[in-house]
Each structure stands twice: as C-alpha cells, then as structure tokens.
Amino acid sequence: MLELIKMSRIEDGSELAAAVDALLNDAFPEGAPNERSAYYSRHGVPITSMLLSDGGRTVGHLAIYERDIKIGEEALRVGLLGEIAITADRRGGGLARRLVRQAHEHLRARSIPFAILFAFEPRVYVSSGYKLMQNQTRFIDTDGHCKTLVYHGGMYAELLGRPWPNQSIDLCGTAV
Ligand SMILES: CC(C)(COP(=O)(O)OP(=O)(O)OC[C@H]1O[C@@H](n2cnc3c(N)ncnc32)[C@H](O)[C@@H]1OP(=O)(O)O)[C@@H](O)C(=O)NCCC(=O)NCCS
After folding, report:
1. Domains of the chain by range and CATH?
2. Which residues of 56-69 are buried (b: 16+ CB within 10 A; e: fewer)?
3. Ligand 1: which of 91, 127, 151 to mutate, most ligand atoms within 8 Å of CB?
4. Mean pLDDT across the stretch 84-101?
C-alpha cells in the first residue's frame, strides 16, 4: 500500500537516506553517486521532503523549499519544488502528479500563494496546474554569478486564487 511520508530532515546514515539516495542517483545519473548531498549543498536542505513508500520501498521523492523572493517590488514567500523523482518501474502511474498535489496542499495550508519549479520536461506538470513563466528572472546560476533571463522550463502554479504577476522576479538565490 502506498504511503506518503513527510519529513523535515532525512537523517544521513539512515536506511531511508540510503533508499532516497538510490532513487535520486538512478533518476539523476549525472549527479550520482552524491546527487542528494550535492543538491543540498547547492540549494540548502529542503524545509520538507515528501516520499512515497510502497510496502517499505521508497518509490517517489519531492523536495519543498520555501523562499522569500521579489516579484516586481513585492517581497513574497513562495514554494519551490525540486528533485521530483519516481523510481523507473513505477513511472507513468500518476505518482509524480500525486506528490505535487500533496506538496500544493502543504503550501496552501501555510498560506503560500504560488509554487514554482524548473522542469526538464514541462509537459509533466501541466495537469498539476503549472504554466510556463514569461517573467524576466534573476537568479544565482551554477557558476555562482547572477543572471537575468526568462528561465527555460520555469513554471508556476497559483495555489490560492491569486493571479500570477507578470513582472520581473528575483529568486534571491538559485533555481532549485
Ligand atoms: C518526470 C517523472 C518525475 C514523472 O513521474 P511519473 O510518476 O511518471 O509522472 P505521472 O505519471 O504522475 O505523470 C504526470 C503527467 O506527466 C506526463 N509525463 C510523464 N512522464 C513524461 C515524460 N517523460 N515526458 C512527457 N510527459 C510525461 C504524464 O503523461 C502525465 O500527464 P497527464 O497528467 O496530463 O496525464 C519521472 O519520469 C522521473 O522520475 N524521471 C526522472 C527524473 C526527472 O527527470 N525528474 C523531473 C525533474 S524536473
């Protein structure tokens, strides 16, 4: 039976950490064998990690960050979703959609109006309510320098009915 596990921290050295590492290294082979720790050193430890477990086997992962960004002149807390991965033999069954839905519930309960993600394949997130951003976006790139551009694959979802502002954004950090 599929179970959702919400955690504030995945304890290094635990069995669960090993299972999550195996899942993420497999899903993001370019980051293996240290995908999760490299991701955390780039972006920080997520505020919440969501896992899907099936009979004790970890089959899905999603990381949630909360960040104070600037949209136009307004400072606003948003949710950033990253490291979305489903184990290869369970893909195509709606599990990513389910994790994203749970992440949205979590963010709504915290009165956070928008979720943002940076997709390799934007099509995956359309049915979860995401649209491509057209905003000029300032962020810290992998080389540590600030860049401003319309981020390819940058997507937003409106969680509380507030329309997404069509203004420039400062992510005040990296794109997760
Ligand atoms: C991308 C990934 C998370 C999708 O997980 P999944 O559980 O198979 O996705 P779902 O079954 O929930 O599908 C959600 C939607 O995406 C679509 N979809 C799934 N994989 C897709 C793909 N590779 N390309 C295009 N669309 C895809 C589905 O058809 C579905 O569309 P619908 O809701 O309109 O019917 C999974 O393939 C994966 O782990 N890939 C490797 C890691 C990765 O690339 N992560 C994404 C980082 S942005």
Report:
1. 2-174 (3.40.630.30)
2. eebbbbbbbbebeb
3. 91
4. 98
Enter the tokens of residue 138. 């300032």
Residue owning the nearest CA to atom 33 of ligand 1: 127
Condensed to tens digits (0 to 9), the pLDDT of residues 110-163 reads 999 999 999 999 999 999 999 999 999 999 999 999 999 999 999 999 999 999
Cα angle 141, 67, 117 (rounded to 5 degrees) comes to 60
CA pair distance 125, 132, nearest whole angstrom:
10
Q: Vertex 78, ends 151 and 7: CA angle to 5°? A: 110
In angstroms, the Cα distances linking 119 to 31, 70, 100, 138 are 16, 21, 13, 17
Encode pLDDT of 33-75 as tens digits.
999 999 999 999 999 999 999 999 999 999 999 999 999 999 9
Ligand 1 atom closest to 118 (CA): 48
Q: For the segment 18-42, what is each residue's pLDDT rounded down to a tens digit?
A: 999 999 999 999 999 999 999 999 9
Contact 55, 90 (CB under 8 A): no
Interatomic CA distance for residues 76 and 93, integer angstroms: 34
pLDDT at position 174: 96
Q: How many CA atoms lie within 13 A of 110 on its CB side?
A: 18
